[in-house]
Amino acid sequence: MRVFSGIQPSGPAHLGNYLGAFRQWVDVQSPDAFYCVVDLHALTLEIAPDVLRAQTTDLLATLMASGLDPEICTIFIQSQVPYHAQLSWLLECVATSGELSRMTAFKEKSQRQEGYRVGLLTYPVLMAADILLYETEEVPVGDDQRQHLELTRDVAEKFNHRFGETFRLPVGTQPKVAARVMDLQEPTRKMSKSISSPLGKLYMFDSPADIEKKIAKAVTDNDGEVRFDWIKKPGVSNLLEIYSSLSGETPQQVASRYTRYGELKSDLAELIIKTLAPLKQRRDELLESPEDLYRVAARGADKAAAVAGAVYRRAATAMGLT
Ligand code: AQP
User: Fold this and answer.
1) Which residues contact 151 (CB under 8 A, 6 or more apart)?
2) What is the fold, at CATH topology level, of the domain defined by 3-178+289-318?
3) Gap between the Cα atoms of 154 and 160, Å rounded
4) In 3-state terms, what secondary structure has residue 104?
5) R_g of the chain computed on alpha carbons
6) Given 51, 64, 151, 281, which is the most exposed site by the fewest CB atoms within 10 A?
7) pLDDT at 107 (0 to 100)
8) SS3 227
9) Which residue has the higher pLDDT, 274 or 223?
10) How far apart are CA 318 and CA 5, in angstroms?
């Protein structure tokens, strides 16, 4: 099964990235799986060059600390494989501005940038290129990426229809629980690296004291009942779903053990700290030798380019490029 997925180095990874994406990636890693730090996507935000480089390195270490093994799957950095940007241009000449301006992420993020960058509008096309270059069958992602996946399929279908069968149509897969981890302060919106407030997002490698503080301050409600109900109790349901994702129980089973928010929160904080501590240790060790991480990425880029190059040439030829 050919698998592709990626993460933007727009900040350190948070709990949503880990539960919604990385754990699925580890579950389906194989020689046919390609995982990518999509640094070109991060350029759509205001980001200093040295920060972008440091965050890219940090995410390579984070992915490996989360369990991705470069001896099993391919791990690489998007900008080191030029076919991503090249295919993106070809697909920009297929996608329409109407399709792109309907994307929810664009609507949200463009409001936050005065005179937003063109890349913020077109990055879902780059994402389509990322996926289609690997003849991907399955894209393990969080629930927030459904709309982008739909666009990828639409663009591929349109291309195939106009220029002949070129791209395989991928499907997205989501975990059963925690496919959309919500902001701890605004539990009706997803936890996000760039949009959530400092208390709203819980980084994978926050200190134990910060994890305790953020979970303790997580917004709940006033009725005091521990019950799983996304409509009436989004804050508590978010905590229950995170708990369930880490413990393997259902959210309802977790809820049945608690009568007070305080106890649920302190046990959840403890569970998060216990789960992430060994990953943090491994990530810190990996960051001690960044040259080894870059070697892994360079080897990954060579393997990725061999696959992506063939698909890019097929698409370019189909469109009439010589
Ligand atoms: N809150 C979330 N819950 C579950 N999964 C999530 N993912 C992101 N947020 C959540 C999944 O993590 C993978 C990598 O996402 P990304 O960082 O490349 O882009 P994003 O979805 O736009 O994530 P952020 O945190 O919101 O980043 P910014 O703020 O920079 O845009 C994807 O599989 C995603 O579904």
Assistant:
1) 95, 99, 100, 103, 124, 125, 127, 128
2) Rossmann fold (3.40.50)
3) 10
4) helix
5) 20
6) 281
7) 86
8) coil
9) 274
10) 25
193 is an active site residue? yes
- Asked if residue 81 has pLDDT above 90, the reply is yes
Q: Report percent pLDDT > 90 for the chain.
A: 90
Mean pLDDT in residue range 51-77:
98
Of 35, 48, 34, whose CA–CA distance to 2 is shortest? 34
190 lines ligand 1 (CB under 6 A): yes
* b (16+ CB within 10 A) / e for 185-201: bbbebbbbbbbbeeebb
Contacts of 49 (CB under 8 A, 6+ apart): none
Backbone angles phi, psi at 36, to 5 degrees: -140, 140
- Residue whose CA lies nearest to ligand 1 atom number 26: 192
User: DSSP letters along 111-155, please?
Assistant: TTSTT--HHHHHHHHHHHHHHHTTT-SEEE--GGGHHHHHHHHHH
User: What are the tens digits of pLDDT across the range 149-183?
Assistant: 999 999 999 999 999 999 999 999 999 999 999 99
Choose which residue among 66, 192, 203 to substitute to test ligand 1 binding: the one with the highest number of ligand atoms within 8 A of its C-beta: 192
- DSSP secondary structure, 284-295, as one string: HHHHT-HHHHHH
Distance between Cα 142 and ligand 1 center (Å): 7
Closest-CA residue, ligand 1 atom 2, reads 16
Q: Where are the domains of the chain?
A: 3-178+289-318
Q: How far is the CA of 193 from the centre of ligand 1 (A)?
A: 7
Q: Does position 46 have pLDDT exceeding 90, yes or no?
A: no
- pTM, two decimals, is 0.94
Q: Is 4 helix (H, G, I), strand (E, B) or coil?
A: strand
